[in-house]
Amino acid sequence: MTPVRQHEFLYQISPVGVQTGEKTYRLIRADGYAPHYYTDVGAPDEYPANQPRPRAGQHSTIVVYAEMVFDPPKITGGLFNYGIYSTYSINLSGCAFDSYNSSAGAYGGSNVSNKGSIAADTTLHDGIELSNATVKGTVLVSENGNPSTVIENVKSTIIPPVTDPVTPPTGKLPTGWALGAPTPLSELASPPIEVNLSGITSSKTLAGNPDGKTPTYYHASQIDISGNKGAIVTTGGPVLIYVDNGVSITGIGTTVPNNKPGNLQIFVTGTASCKVQGNGSFFGGLYAPKSTVEFKASNSGKGGVWFGAVVAKTFSTGGGGTPAFHFDLAMVTAATKTPSTVPPRVGINTWQEINTLAWDTGKTS
């Protein structure tokens, strides 16, 4: 670049290469005389008050290495990219976590893996507490968190998937990660089907689209299932339920076509707490990023089996038995990258300034 004059300085900016990782380096060199400002009323006419004039005895050379820092693109994931995802904290007590793929059939046998993860987008100390738990998969914290301080491991085992190189048992969410969100209720192509799911003590059937693929949308004030026969049974294609208030499932649980958890997805639109506890199993995805979610076996130790995925503000397990969480990998969707809208910043790597004569001191520096 051709040198440019700025007051008494000539400066030049030169590229010095592009480093992988979206960082562009530049060398900035400036040579000239530092200005001096008169503040007295009787300043000479050729240098009006408060105007710069060169310091005739001081020559400066300034060399700066700088870089343009670009924010990474935002990575928006699907609703259920992780088996257990929390926006604040996770507490697994006596729980066993693993994964499978419902597209390959029912859970069990060769259809059991440790390819899934639990994740909490938090930097909170002990934000993920593992107590007498087994996690067959990885445990992730916020991209700004420290796994060694966020994760508290008390008599628990983490078994990551074996890859080359070996995947560490703990780590961080991808840089720029953001949780996805369902389509807002007000933006659905057609109004959802209104349904009363309060006080359910028997089998309640919710019909999905007969084609087995197209989602059918429902809207309920709350979900409250209890008793020895209380259950939600879905048929046909995926059933997606928007719920204004809390979710309490303490009966048999849920039943979905072909035992595929993606066929039942519950979206909690508010902050009400949620509870899944019963003698049966829960098949489905629960999306409640602003809610406290409890998952427990019954007091007798029965039930407490979850097939699918969950998103919560806080998620905890417990109860009389050993809760089991089987993450359905078929519910994972591809993440999308959105370019950053934040303007690049200039970061200074090194700064060197050499003066031939420091003003009014008679010394060089």
Describe the structure.
The protein has about 375 residues and is mainly beta. It has two domains: about 5-70 and about 345-355, no CATH class; about 75-335, no CATH class. Helices cover about 0% and strands about 50% of the residues. The strands form four sheets. The chain has a 20-stranded parallel sheet that branches. It has a five-stranded antiparallel sheet with strand order 1-2-3-4-31, with no helix packed on it. A three-stranded mixed sheet has the order 15-5-30, with no helix packed on it. Strand 2 and strand 3 (about 25-35) form a beta hairpin. The protein is elongated and about 90 Å long. The protein starts with a strand and ends in a 10-residue tail after the last strand.
How many strand segments? 31
Low-confidence stretches: 38-43, 359-365
Q: Based on helices, strands and strand pairing, what is the structural class?
A: mainly beta
Helix content: under 10%
- What is the global morphology? elongated
List keywords for this structure.
365 residues, mainly beta, 2 domains, five-stranded antiparallel sheet, 1 helix, 31 strands
Question: Topology of this protein?
Answer:
Elements: E1 4-6, E2 9-19, E3 23-37, E4 52-69, E5 74-76, E6 84-93, E7 96-100, E8 117-120, E9 128-131, E10 134-136, E11 138-141, H1 147-150, E12 151-154, E13 157-159, E14 170-172, E15 177-178, E16 193-194, E17 197-200, E18 203-207, E19 216-220, E20 223-225, E21 231-235, E22 239-243, E23 247-249, E24 253-255, E25 264-268, E26 274-278, E27 281-297, E28 305-318, E29 324-328, E30 336-338, E31 345-355
